[in-house]
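Entry 12.
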Amino acid sequence: MERSTRQRTAIRDAIAEAGRPLLPQEVLDAAQSQVPGLGIATVYRNLKALALDGELRTVELPGENPRYELVGHGHHHHFQCNVCERVFDVHACPGDLSKLAPRGFTVEDHDLTLYGKCSDCQRAVDKAPARSSDKRL
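Predicted 3D structure (C-alpha cells):
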C-alpha cells in the first residue's frame, strides 16, 4: 500500500463528497479545491493506485470512459443522465433475474444501468419557456 499524500487524500475526498461515480476530469476539478496545483496525470496515477489498493471501484458503462467510486456501497446499480452525462448510484435492485436467462443457463451476477434525465436536468427542462414554432410567412 502506498503512503497517503495530500493529493491522494484530496482525490479520495472528492469522490466521497460527490457521492457518485466520477470521471478523472471530474475528480481533478473537485480535488483542485484542496490541492490547487493538482494535475490530471497525478489524478490518473492515484486513481489507478487507489483501485489496486481496493479503495476504489471502476464503474464501466458501455461506450464511456471509466468512472471511479469508493468501495463499500454493497450491491447497487447506476443511472446515467442523457443530458449532463453524470452517473449516479441506484441503491435498489430488481432482484433475481435468473428468469431472463436462456433455459439451462445460470445467472451469477448482473449489472443494470438506467438512462434518463437527472433531477437537475429535468428541473431545467420544466423551467424552460415553451418554444413557439418557427413560422415564416
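Annotation: Strands lie at 56-59, 67-70, 77-81, 87-90, 113-116. Residues 74-130 form a domain with the Dna Ligase; domain 1 fold (CATH 3.30.1490.190).
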